Amino acid sequence: MALIVQKYGGTSVGSVERIEQVAEKVVRWRERGDDVVVVVSAMSGETNRLINLAKSIHGRPAPRELDVLMSTGEQVTIALLSIALEKRGCAARSYTGGQVHILTDSAHNKARIRAIDDQRVRGDLNLGRVVVVAGFQGVDELGNITTLGRGGSDTTAVALAAAMKADECQIYTDVDGVYTTDPRVVPQARRLDRITFEEMMEMASLGSKVLQIRSVEFAGKYNVPLRVLSSFEDGPGTLITYEEEGMEEALISGIAFNRDEAQLTILGVPDQPGVAYKILGPISDSNIEVDMIVQNIAQDGSTTDFTFTVHRNDFQRALELLNRTSSELGAREVRGNETLVKISLVGVGMRSHAGIASTMFKTLANEGINIRMISTSEIKISVVVDEKYLELGVRALHEAFELNKTH
Ligand code: ADP
Ligand code: ASP
Ligand code: MG
């Protein structure tokens, strides 16, 4: 008998009919004799609806109250699914994150899980019940409701699977696995049978929202067997796994992209020690995450230009801060651009192969796409380009690297 943790995302529980279909699926697993813990998201669109309600009252709602509000989405789904299970004669119990002691830090809207006390869940499983847990939420030490960041139900599922040493954590969603790139942008994208934790981490952090990055981090750290599958059709899905010795490595496993880039440039700052700190200090003090950074070589020997990227949501705030720094430093000009995107190639095979960057740049050049920034690591290359070139760029690269074919 195995212990399986299953997570069903927003679309998979998007209506009462779909919730009933999920119940059917869970019952089939139970009938095999497995213990099943189910984590569910809010019904699709619900979390956005709740956020918009709050924003219609206040432009920047208090993060604590936003958590109280957003967590209600998942609470609806756990109850409906448990009712659907009971209707089928399958004993079930629903729990909020707090009720099963998902303890987090107090960083509202982006809390991190610190510990899970699985006693209550185990007790129910021993009584033959299916346990249905609300994803995306926990409580801090003082009992305040917290949420784990958008897409956080994935992390709830993996954390529960890790805490309970589950045999597998299955993430059921509206695609039948992890693809070479988002199949909604490239219809020729190919489902991968397996992908390494390392590659999946890069894909997730570079914008592939099929799994929340923290869930992959958790799964890698605690060695949780993790699989992405379709809730609508049967199939093997994609297994996220460790890199195996001798495993034939694809040069490129996938293409990730991120539509939320914004770029800021400060021109004509003194080329002297401490300037990077003066520019980026106020930005990080305001909790704005900086992604790529480029500092040019001083042409006239005394001043230089400095460019960095942030999330689009932080653009206005970063621009205000940079304008302030600019007057303090006597810079020549501040420029901003919030219609940019980032496209990244990811693959562990890159480690041992040269020439990938040049093929990437040539492909983009052939399409007349101007590259505004470049950044590389051992297993990825990212470029920043104008938003209007996103689809064209991703499709051209997918074709150039023949990602539609198995190698
Ligand atoms: P859920 O609501 O089930 O959590 P998400 O919308 O968070 O589902 O994630 C699934 C979506 O991720 C897919 O519909 C797909 O458009 C998108 N996606 C982005 N990149 C990829 C990829 N490389 N492989 C598969 N899906 C991807
Ligand atoms: N409902 C939350 C969201 O929309 C969490 C999740 O779906 O994973 O972000
Ligand atoms: Mg998701």
Could you walk me through the main structural features you see in this protein, from its secondary elements to its overall organization?
The protein has eleven helices and 18 strands. The chain is of the alpha/beta class and 407 residues long. An eight-stranded mixed beta sheet has the order 3-6-2-1-9-11-12-10, sandwiched between helices. Strands 14-15-13-16-18-17 form a six-stranded antiparallel beta sheet. Strands 4-5 form a two-stranded antiparallel sheet. The longest helix is centred in the first third of the chain and has 25 residues, at 63-87. The model has no long low-confidence stretch (mean pLDDT 94).
Summarize the main sheet: 8 strands, mixed
Mean pLDDT: 94
Number of helical stretches of at least 4 residues: 11
What count of domains describes the coordinates? 2
Mind sketching the topology for me?
Elements: E1 3-8, H1 16-31, E2 35-40, H2 46-57, H3 63-87, E3 92-95, E4 102-104, E5 113-116, H4 119-126, E6 130-134, E7 137-139, E8 145-147, H5 153-163, E9 168-173, E10 194-196, H6 197-205, H7 213-221, E11 226-230, E12 238-241, E13 254-270, H8 275-285, E14 290-295, E15 303-311, H9 315-329, E16 333-346, H10 356-366, E17 373-377, E18 380-386, H11 390-400
Parallel strand pairs: 1-2, 1-9, 2-6, 3-6, 9-11, 10-12
Antiparallel strand pairs: 4-5, 7-8, 11-12, 13-15, 13-16, 14-15, 16-18, 17-18
Helix pairs in contact: 1-3, 2-3, 5-7, 6-7, 8-9, 10-11
The structure holds adenosine-5'-diphosphate (ADP), aspartic acid (ASP) and magnesium ion.
